[in-house]
Input
Amino acid sequence: MADSLSTTVIAICGTLLGSGLTAWAAALAERRRNEALERQQIREEAARERERRRELRSEHLKWRRDRRQAAYQELMDAAHEAEGAVWQLGRLTLEPFDQHRYDLRRGAAIDAVRATRRAADAVQLEGPEEVALAAEEYARAVDRHIGPPVEALMRMSEGPLAEGEAERYRSGAAETEARVAQWRRRFVPLAREALDESVEEA
Output
């Protein structure tokens, strides 16, 4: 009987031990499966986060490019308007002096030059630095371009220009016009390059 009792005890202990080991192995396998699922979820979340950041960066770069393009275009348009207003002002040197017409055209030219300066300031904010510097010089050249006709017309308010004075005016106007053209030719390729780089980054 003692043998049968010991066999029963051993069988029960074996069964309990086997059940315990099976439960432990199942729990271990479940824990590993859960850990693997957690790692998979973390990887998927990280991938989604990377994709979200990539999309945000792409949207930001597109926004940045659009803002730059608008600022560059605004400068080009404002400078064109200013050149036209200065040209209109300069046309008055070919006619007898008229204070009213002078005041109107000078006011329009000054407003157009100021608009060009404001547009160049916007380019300063948008950058990049090389484009901003070219924009500043372009606006400065437009600003200087108003000088010769204003000086000639102020002199004409006192009487007709002598031939030497008229020649100095034409020379000064041609020089400032050439500077405007020079800085436009410098600004445009730099602006185009900056916009192309923005597209490549995106």
Residues 2-91 form the longest helix (90 residues). Residues 152 and 169 are 6 Å apart (CA to CA). The mean pLDDT is 89.
